[in-house]
Amino acid sequence: WKIKMLLKGKIALITGSNRGVGLSILKKFSENGAEVIACARNESEEFEKMIFDISKKYKNKITPVYFDLRKENEITKGLEKIETISNKIEIIVNNAGVNQVSLFQMSSIDKIKEVFDINFFSHLKLTQRLMKILIKNKKGSIINISSNAAEECDAGRSAYASSKAALIAFTKVLSKELGSFNIRVNAIAPGLTNTDMMGKDVSKKILDAAINRVALKRPAEPEEISDVVMFLASDLSSYVSGEVVFVTGGY
Description:
This protein has 251 residues and is of the alpha/beta class. Helices cover 46% and strands 16% of the residues.
């Protein structure tokens, strides 16, 4: 994607853009000429410096917006701010999420609801409001970051896998509702990815066993996920909608 400015003139919104896959998407979009609304939970000097350096390097505009996806009132305020930034948003990447591992019998319903609030309902709220901009302009691409956990359904993933599976179902339904407005909706289901979240709450033994089940015998790098996001955001995928792209290295 380094040869062409595939997103030149486009405005993209990315949630969870301050680290891991989200930060990689932010860099990839910037490199390809997009103006970016970078959403994160908390304001920090480190993130402010990162987006300053990225925008300086690629000569694009990056506007940070901070809100906590666990708090509905903050989401509402964040959306209000986003709407004042631009009425020409064309790309929405619902990337933010939380990992969770525990046996179902040890998981409180409140904890499961919290996982769904962050991984599913917050994306619905944000998409439902912002898709009005895409509908009005009759163009756009919505990309939901799910997980291969939605299909693998390993023990201990009742909340996480279910929330990511719900996101896939939502993706397919929304693609059918928005297709007539020239809006594409797709999901990406990454497998093991080399981010801070990968080893969290998981022992080295379990992680090594999971990597051994990957055909390529290694986790993905964040850039290998953001490359696929780039494809779905750009006109290279102009006839791709309602799809789930599994990026698992042959898991």
